[in-house]
Specification:
single chain; 265 residues; alpha+beta; six-stranded antiparallel sheet; elongated
Length: 265
């Protein structure tokens, strides 16, 4: 899938020749093949997610099909899907919706923000396109060369999915396919590969067994300490009740002695 960025000037500079940038993300190259006024007219009054034929852009784009993905004007206001207008509008947006990041907002809090409609107009400065169909000719310096990706997946399950491996296969040797070799600052050649996450090895299984064993030991220790505490608590309560009963007995004996009449000789 290719991403195309066309830079459009405002209506004041409509008759000038402008620069457009084309990006091919898969191969990692950038180019500026657009440069005439007629290149913009094919996209006017089109909406986001609408496909446009590249035949109107020139012979080099014959057979290409572009899909409009968005854009923004010279002030940086982006286009929003679902807003059927070519100009700007102010909408109440909440966090998580497109065109509004909403950092530092409370849950459910909405703010009124300026966005552009989903219809392409001449006020745009950047138009984002995706090439959904490649044409007959390659674009020089863009689609005729290949620059491989330097980074592959790190998660073990995704590595298995990439190379169609089973759970019994070792994924560590497949990471070497996208291991990169480079020269560090000291001039020494070193190789580097991503660390595999969620990789099940005998060491990880041993650590898991150790964690489970420690957890069981802590549970048994806590139960033993709780039983010992309950036993000690029962002993203390029994001693407290005995002391209380003794003090009450002494108090009753004193009251009984004081209530008896004195004998006169």
């Amino acid at each position: 899938m290719m991403l195309v960025i066309m830079e459009l000037k405002s209506s004041v500079d409509f008759h000038e020749v402008h620069n457009r940038n084309l990006t091919y993300e898969i191969l990692g190259f950038y180019d500026s093949p657009f440069g005439v006024r007629s290149h913009r007219r094919a996209f006017f009054d089109k909406r986001i997610s609408q496909e446009v034929s590249g035949d109107a852009l020139g012979e080099e784009f014959k057979g290409y099909v572009f899909k409009i993905m968005g854009g923004c004007d010279k002030q940086g206001f982006p286009m929003k899907q679902g807003v059927l207008t070519p100009g700007r509008v102010r909408l109440l947006l909440y966090r998580g919706t497109p065109c509004f990041r909403g950092y530092g907002r409370r849950n459910g809090e909405r703010r009124r923000k300026s966005v552009r409609g989903c219809i392409v107009s001449q006020d745009l400065s950047v138009l984002n396109l995706v090439i959904v169909k490649k044409g007959e000719n390659d674009l020089p310096g863009l689609t005729d060369v290949e620059k491989p990706r330097m980074r592959g997946p790190k998660r073990a399950s995704k590595i298995r999915k990439l190379f169609n491996l089973s759970k019994e296969d070792d994924v560590r040797k497949y990471v070497n396919t996208y291991r990169r070799t480079f020269t560090n600052k000291s001039g020494k050649k070193v190789s580097k590969a991503p660390k595999i996450q969620r990789l099940v090895t005998p060491l990880t299984l041993q650590r898991k067994r150790a964690r489970i064993s420690d957890k069981k030991k802590r549970i048994s220790k806590a139960k033993a300490e709780a039983a010992e505490y309950q036993k000690l608590l029962a002993t203390r309560l029994k001693e407290q009740r005995e002391r209380r009963s003794e003090s009450l007995a002494k108090k009753r004996s004193r009251l009984s002695v004081a209530s008896k009449p004195s004998v006169v000789a």
